Amino acid sequence: MAKNTERKVNTMWGGRFFSEPSNTMEKINSSIGIDHRLAGQDIKGSIAHVKMLAHQEIIPREVSETIIDGLKTIENEIMAGEFKFEVSLEDVHMNIENRLHDLVGSDAGFLHTARSRNDQVATDFRMWIRESLDELVMLISRCMMAFLGIAENHYDTIMPGFTHMQSAQPITLGHHMLAYVEMLSRDKERFGEARNRLNECPLGAAALAGTSFPIDRFMTAQALGFDKPMANSIDAVSDRDFALDFVSGAAICATHLSRFAEELVIWSSDQFRFIQISESFSTGSSIMPQKRNPDAAELIRAKVSLISGGLVSLLTLLKGLPLAYSKDLQEDKEIIFRVHDNLCLLLNVMAEMLPEIKVNKEVLKDSASSKFITATDLADYLVSNFKYSFRQSHHAVGELVRKAENLGCDLKDLDINHFKEIEPNIDDGIFEVLAVRHSIKSRKSYGGTDPSQVKARITEWKKRLT
Ligand code: ARG
To answer: Which of 96, 327, 333 to mutate to test the pocket of ligand 1 (most atoms within 8 A of CB)?
Structure first.
């Protein structure tokens, strides 16, 4: 049984302090409005800790059982939405410990043996991010499926491919969609790597130096699903590189989404008309009755700034901190929760918006047959058939393009004699080489836009994702 020392309301450090914090101090100091989201992890961590304490005979078994019962009651109260989080109790750890005291009395005081809030919060936070990473990986897969859906329907739908936002070479829409599938799959990998790296347990590092109690850190690490305990107690409580891994991976993933969102905005414009976004993901204008605005895509593009801003915030938060713990670290959670919430939203919106997009195949095709888009095919043809070096050929075709431009026509509209001027042995077959469909089909190099290749990639991806 605990010694009967008088417990002051609110303060865990009541032995040392006589007065309560000022209201403004409470405002800046309290994190419960944010870190209540760690409650589930905090209770799991406490149960693992208290079981270990009893196993190591650091606290009596009956006490540990009382504490665990109390923690489970608290867990139920939180899940039922009945738990009252108090700002005056500062954070999630103290809210829970205080409630435990209400429920089980002085036995609650044994829970905090051989630990500190410093290792406690680092443990909770790692577990929270671990769950978030698992959720995000699932949402990315769903989003990849949505891209794959369009790719499958349009594996041979011709469109212009762009460089510098100028028509470059014809590609297929399927190929373009698969580019995003590849990007998102690397995002998933990055999250997987972040997960592997974060999966070491800080619990037992205590305030910063470890503890004099004979704890078993391997036991708590295992109970909480970690691979092993962290090897350095100072590192365990002070670094947040696992959160940086998370937010940098998130920023990269969000950037990928933003690039596509930007393409959606451009493609759905009256000037492009490549696609139409469904009404359910568009908005109208309060003044212009004709308008149909791509707000969802614009907001994806915009909210990415909050995510990449999160990366900058966290880097800035950490860069000036001497080891080990400083209260600055309390601010890390708001950043990470916001990044998580926004990235989940963006992935969900993208996954739901994509299947409803209407593709204007005719417009895409027309747009791909303009502006010398197969000039490279002609250059390649001269190299393959007439022993030109690529540079010679590039020059010759360049001159021909200029000629066509002066005549106000496309390459394919030139007379055969114009081609014969650069290469006398060219015959009518050249017009086939200049055809967009021919161009697409000839891009058979691994990873190229040839529709049969695109189809093969889609089959591979579908297998990998299901
Ligand atoms: N709420 C705190 C945080 O999130 C918990 C750790 C507090 N530790 C301390 N030594 N004051 O960082």
So the answer is: 327
Residue 3 Cα, ligand 1 centroid: separation in angstroms?
26
**Ligand 1 atom closest to residue 92's alpha carbon, by position in its atom list:** 1
E strands present in 259-301: 275-276
| Coil, strand or helix at 16 | coil
Active site residue 285: yes
Q: Are the C-beta atoms of 450 and 130 separated by less than 8 Å?
A: no
Can you give the pLDDT of all 466 residues of the chain as single tens digits?
A: 444 444 444 556 777 788 888 899 999 999 999 999 999 999 999 999 999 999 999 999 999 999 999 999 999 999 999 999 999 999 999 999 999 999 999 999 999 999 999 999 999 999 999 999 999 999 999 999 999 999 999 999 999 999 999 888 999 999 999 999 999 999 999 999 999 999 999 999 999 999 999 999 999 999 999 999 999 999 999 999 999 999 999 999 999 999 999 999 999 999 999 999 998 888 887 878 787 899 999 999 999 999 999 999 999 999 999 999 999 999 999 999 999 999 999 999 999 999 999 999 999 999 998 779 999 999 999 999 998 999 999 999 999 999 999 999 999 999 999 999 988 999 999 999 999 999 999 999 999 999 999 999 999 999 999 8
- Which residues are near ligand 1 (CB < 6 Å)? 31, 35, 91, 117-118, 121, 325, 327, 329-330
Task: Kindly report whether the peptide bond that precedes residue 231 is cis, defined as omega within 30 degrees of 0.
Answer: no
Q: 240 alpha carbon to ligand 1 midpoint, in Å?
A: 13
* 94 CA from centroid of ligand 1 (Å): 10
Length of the chain equals 466
Residue pair 147/180 in contact by the 8 Å Cβ criterion: yes
Q: Could you tell me the end-to-end alpha-carbon distance of the chain, in angstroms, rounded to an integer?
A: 56
For residue 116, how far is its CA from the centre of ligand 1 (angstroms)?
A: 9
Nearest to 110 by CA among 66, 75, 56: 66
| CA gap 157, 175 in Å, rounded | 9
Q: How far is CA 244 from its chain centroid?
A: 12
Nearest to 260, CA basis, from 300, 292, 302: 300
Domains of the chain in sequence order: 22-113 (1.10.275.10), 118-212+229-366 (1.20.200.10), 370-465 (1.10.40.30)
Residue 48 near residue 220, CB atoms below 8 Å: yes
pTM of the model: 0.93
- Distance (Å, whole) CA 265 – CA 357: 12
Q: Is 49 labeled as catalytic in the residue annotation?
A: no
